[in-house]
Write a structure and sequence with these properties.
alpha/beta, binds glutamine, single chain, eleven-stranded mixed β-sheet
Length: 484
């Protein structure tokens, strides 16, 4: 079943050649067999899933199913799920049972998708390797000695190993695309404002965006069209019609202009990765797309700007975790200050504390202009670079990451090295643009991702282009040998 697309499985469900209960049991079995070696899911909601599957079968029998009714998915653990622990993979929220569903969780539930549990991630989505999780690292199905990427490592690893058909994820600086690249799966970060952030635990609110990881662009389209849309509970969500993405996938790419930034093929990129991505672009050229060299001159500034803006927003967002209202509380506090201090010292991990320290420093009086204001000015420049290039091309394309998945522990003592990982992904977050990563080949048996960045609210163009590529290649259908 894992080898079928959601589209095909959905047809089989409606023809009743399989039932949703059978499908759910199949994936639950795979989770039991494979999750111990991956640590992709940190919470399994088996009973709830089987109940929902039985309801899905009734809905299918009544003839009012959607394409997602009965399809097995799981949620990144920063999306609130009513009655189910929502920990953000932090000790701080280890005991937090969400009292309501995030908007995307309720939307997918209303469509009949079955959630099998919650997925591992870097603590509060801060990281690029999933190693900062309070519940331990998650492992890459293609090589268990390597990281799956982050912060949505659990989402990417679970889809890659066929433990679920699709997973929700979030992307603040690359956290959907980079793990999708490392695990050989397809991920889309929509335009900022396209998908509601209601019920998504905030990291850096002006950059965070919810999205999806699945095997193919077509599967992503089926989920995204349910998740996207205006939500009055999120003041940054946009009042814009949501196209039926899954029905717009067979358009010709003849004459489509693809901008290839020269900065994305610098000497920092592994030569094998560069070559694989270039070959993928040439494949698209053969299908009629036009490749045009472009420049994003401020690419080298995206990391310094992001690592001021994101920690600044994080330091403010995470101030709510004070040991008073919810989350971890230290034992026997002497006074209020002691309560704050010891709850936060014990509740947060090192990376989260590092970000809070950077953020409060950058925002403090006397440094605000030098750091935060400067970073916002750089953000504007980056935004303008992308807007300028997108005046003359439809899509920008290049590698998602500079390399394939690193070994576990590689960046343990060197956070700066880990931060550099996201040099090609952060631009789309700073500029608020939609972006995808799709499997484009293998280097030494490890997946390589091709990144596509589009115009604001033009997710259809990205999904269509990705689908066109996936019609002529089979990188996205592969499973790591141990998870066949
Ligand atoms: N790796 C980046 C960081 O550590 C991006 C994380 C994300 O997109 N959530 O902040």
């Amino acid at each position: 079943m894992k080898n079928q697309s959601i589209f095909t499985l959905s047809e089989q469900l409606s023809r009743k050649s399989i039932s949703s209960v059978e499908l759910t049991k199949y994936f639950l079995e795979r989770i039991k067999k494979y999750n111990p070696s991956l640590n992709a899911l940190i919470t399994l909601t088996e009973d709830q899933a089987l109940n929902k599957a039985a309801q899905a079968d009734i809905r299918i029998a009544c003839g009012n199913a959607t394409a997602l009714t009965g399809i097995a998915i799981a949620h990144k653990d920063l999306f609130c799920t009513e009655g189910v622990r929502t920990s953000c993979c932090s000790k701080m929220l280890d005991n937090f049972i969400a009292p309501y569903d995030a908007k995307i969780v309720s939307a997918l539930d209303a469509a009949g998708a079955i959630s099998l549990g919650k997925l591992n991630m870097d603590e509060f989505a801060m990281g690029a390797s999933n190693e900062t999780s309070f519940y331990g690292a998650c492992f890459n199905p293609w090589d268990l000695k390597r990281v799956p990427g982050g912060s949505s490592g659990g989402s990417a690893a679970a889809v890659s190993a066929g433990l679920v058909m699709a997973a929700t994820a979030s992307d603040t600086g690359g956290s959907i695309r980079q793990p999708a690249s490392f695990c050989g799966v397809t991920g889309i970060k929509p335009t900022y404002g396209r998908v509601s952030r209601y019920g998504m635990i905030a990291f850096a609110s002006s950059l965070d965006q919810a999205g999806v990881i699945a095997k193919s662009a077509q599967d992503c389209a089926l989920l995204l069209e349910v998740m996207a849309g205006f939500d009055e509970q999120d003041s940054t969500s946009m009042q814009k019609d949501v196209p039926a993405y899954s029905k717009m996938l067979n358009q010709s790419i003849q004459g489509l202009k693809i901008g290839v930034p020269k900065e994305f093929f610098s000497s920092d990129v592994d030569p094998d990765v560069s070559k694989i991505v270039m070959d993928a672009l040439k494949e698209l050229e053969k299908q009629g797309a036009i490749l045009i060299e472009v420049s994003l001159p401020n690419t080298s500034l995206v990391i310094p700007a992001y690592y001021v803006i994101a920690p600044a927003e994080a330091s403010s967002n995470l101030s709510r975790f004070d040991g008073v209202r919810y989350g971890f509380r230290c034992d026997n506090p002497k006074d209020l200050n002691d309560l704050y201090l010891r709850s936060r010292t014990t509740g947060f991990g090192d990376e989260v504390k590092r970000r809070i320290m950077i953020g409060t420093y950058a925002l403090s009086a006397g440094f605000y202009d030098a750091y935060y204001l400067k970073a916002q000015q750089v953000r504007r420049k980056v935004y303008e670079d992308y807007q300028e290039v997108l005046k003359s091309v439809d899509v920008i394309a290049g590698p998602t990451a500079t390399d394939t998945a690193p070994l576990l522990g590689m960046h343990g003592n060197n956070p700066k090295q880990a931060y550099l990982n996201d040099i090609f992904t952060i631009g789309a977050n700073l500029a608020g643009l939609p972006a995808m990563s799709i499997p484009a080949g293998f280097s030494a048996n490890l997946p390589v991702g091709l990144q596509l960045i589009g115009k604001a609210f033009d997710e259809s163009c990205l999904l269509n282009l990705a689908h066109a590529y996936q019609q002529i290649t089979n990188w996205h259908t592969q499973y790591a040998p141990d998870f066949e």
